[in-house]
From TrEMBL:
This is ABC-transport protein, ATP-binding component. It comes from Streptomyces coelicolor (strain ATCC BAA-471 / A3(2) / M145). GO terms for molecular function: ATP binding; ATP hydrolysis activity. InterPro entries: AAA+_ATPase, ABC_transporter-like_ATP-bd, ABC_transporter_ATP-binding, P-loop_NTPase. The keyword Electron transport does not apply.
Length: 354
C-alpha cells in the first residue's frame, strides 16, 4: 500500500484524526496497518440451504458458517487457525481472499476490503487450499509457474530468484517437467506452496500445508516457512490438524468452532483451557505391573509389555521419561499429542454447560 493510500485509510477509520496530507496522518496510518494487518470486526457469513422435505417440497433454512467473528493479526505474525471440520475456517479464509462476501461486519486485509478490491488484493496475498490445487492439472509444473509469472506480471529477475529459491528448498527440481496430475499429494502440496510465493505475497494463507508429506518433507516445509517469515516478514495464517505444525511455526493460536472464536492466545494456554493430556506409550522388556509414575501422570492402559500413561499437555515429558528409564527395563517409547478436536469439543461442552 502506498503511503498516501495508508493515510486515506487511517482518515476513514478516524475522521477526527490528522488529515491525509500531514506527516502525522501518514505515520498514524503506517502504525495502524502494522498493528492490524488483518482485521475482522463482527464478521458473519450466512448461507441459504434448501433441502427436499417431500414430493415437490423443499425447505429453506439458513446456515451461519461464521458468527460475529472478530480478531486482528499483526504484520509478520504466524498464527494457527484451528478447529474441527465445519467450524468455519475455510469460509473465513475465502472471505479474507475475496472469494466470498461477508453477510455482515467489517473485514480488511492491509487496509483493503477483499470483496470490493479482489484483484488489487490478489497481488499481496498467497493461498494454498489443501486439497484444491492452483496448478494447471495437465501441464508440467514449470508451465504453471510460467503462467503465474505472466499473470502476476512478476519482474523476470524477481521471478527467477523466487523460483530458484523455492525449487531448492522444497526439492522440486526433479518435478518441474512432470504433469501436475502425475504428482503425489505431498509433491503437489510443495508445488502449490511454491506457486503461492512466486510474487512475494505479504500474507500467506495455508490450509493443511503438510498434508500427505512424510516426516522429512514436513520438516523441510516447516523450515522453509520459518525462514520465509524471518527473512521477509511474511504474515502467515495457518489452518491444520497437525499440532506439530502449530508448535513449530506459530507463536499464537486461534480456535474457531460453530463460526465463533473460542480461544485466542498461546498454545500452552489452549491446553490448559481444554485440560488436554498427552500420552506416553512405553514398551518394556517384559510384562510388568502398572508403572508407578509421579503425579499428575497416571497409567491409563496396559497390554502385555506396553503401557500408556497420560499426563497434562502443558507439562514436559522429559522428567517423566527420565524417571521411567531409570527404574524400568525400557525398550522403546513415544509421545502422542492430544487430538485437537477432542480439546475443542471439551472446551465447547464446558462453555455450553456454564
Amino acid at each position: 500500500m502506498e503511503r498516501a493510500d495508508m493515510a486515506r485509510t487511517a482518515e476513514a477509520a478516524d475522521p477526527a484524526g490528522p488529515g491525509p496530507g500531514t506527516a502525522a496522518g501518514a505515520d498514524a496510518a503506517v502504525e495502524a496497518e502494522a498493528d492490524a494487518f488483518i482485521e475482522l470486526d463482527g464478521v458473519e457469513k450466512v448461507f441459504d440451504v434448501r433441502r427436499k422435505t417431500g414430493f415437490l417440497k423443499r425447505e429453506r433454512r439458513q446456515v451461519r458458517a461464521v458468527d460475529g467473528l472478530s480478531f486482528t493479526v499483526s504484520r509478520g505474525e504466524m498464527v494457527g487457525y484451528i478447529g474441527p471440520n465445519g467450524a468455519g475456517k475455510s469460509t473465513t479464509i475465502k472471505m479474507l481472499t475475496g472469494i466470498l462476501t461477508p453477510s455482515g461486519g467489517r473485514l480488511r486485509v492491509a487496509g483493503i476490503d477483499p470483496s470490493r478490491e479482489r484483484i488489487r488484493l490478489a497481488h499481496r496475498i498467497g493461498v494454498v487450499f489443501g486439497q484444491r490445487t492452483t496448478l494447471w492439472w495437465d501441464l508440467p509444473l514449470i508451465d504453471s509457474y510460467r503462467l503465474m509469472h505472466r499473470m502476476y506480471r512478476i519482474p523476470d529477475a524477481r521471478y527467477r530468484e523466487n523460483l530458484d529459491r523455492c525449487v531448492e528448498l522444497l526439492q522440486l527440481q526433479e518435478l518441474l517437467d512432470v504433469p501436475v496430475r502425475q504428482l503425489s499429494l505431498g509433491q503437489r502440496m510443495r508445488g502449490d506452496i511454491a506457486a503461492a510465493l512466486l510474487h512475494d505475497p505479504e500474507v500467506l494463507y495455508l490450509d493443511e500445508p503438510t498434508i500427505g508429506l512424510d516426516v522429512v518433507s514436513k520438516a523441510k516445509v516447516r523450515g522453509f516457512l520459518l525462514d520465509l517469515n524471518a527473512e521477509r516478514g511474511t504474515t502467515v495464517l495457518l489452518t491444520t490438524h497437525d499440532l506439530q505444525d502449530i508448535e513449530q511455526l506459530c507463536s499464537r493460536v486461534m480456535v474457531i468452532d460453530h463460526g465463533r472464536l473460542m480461544y485466542d492466545g498461546r498454545l500452552e494456554g489452549l491446553h490448559e483451557a481444554g485440560e488436554s493430556e498427552r500420552t506416553l506409550v512405553v514398551d518394556l522388556e517384559r510384562e510388568l505391573p502398572p508403572i508407578e509414575a509421579p503425579e499428575p501422570a497416571r497409567v491409563v492402559r496396559v497390554e502385555g509389555p506396553r503401557q500408556w500413561l497420560a499426563f497434562p499437555a502443558s507439562e514436559s515429558a522429559a522428567g517423566l521419561v527420565a524417571g521411567i528409564a531409570a527404574r524400568y527395563p525400557l525398550v522403546d517409547l513415544s509421545v502422542r499429542e492430544p487430538d485437537i478436536e477432542s480439546v475443542i469439543a471439551k472446551m465447547y461442552a464446558e462453555r455450553a454447560g456454564a
